[in-house]
Amino acid sequence: MPQMAPLSWLILFIVFSSTLILFSIMNYFLTAPTPPQSTSSQFETQAFNWKW
Predict the structure, then answer these.
(1) 17-39 pLDDT per residue, tens
(2) Among the four residues 3, 9, 31, 32, which has the most C-beta atoms within 10 Å?
């Protein structure tokens, strides 16, 4: 049974690595992030009466 030449293994590795990197970059940049919902109740401040 003939084996693949080392150059073919290198080309195969480069092809699979480049497709993995390409799909990772596409997944990172093509997803639209949702803007954070700003709510005023998140940052409520309480008034303190210091009696010194």
Answers:
(1) 999 999 999 998 988 878 877 66
(2) 9
Structure-token pair, residue 1: 């049974």
Distance CA 13, CA 25 (A): 18
- DSSP letter, residue 5: P
Alpha helix positions (H), the chain: 6-30
Q: What letter would DSSP give residue 31?
A: S
Residue in the block written with tokens 């210091």: 50
- Give this prediction's pTM: 0.52
pLDDT at 10: 87
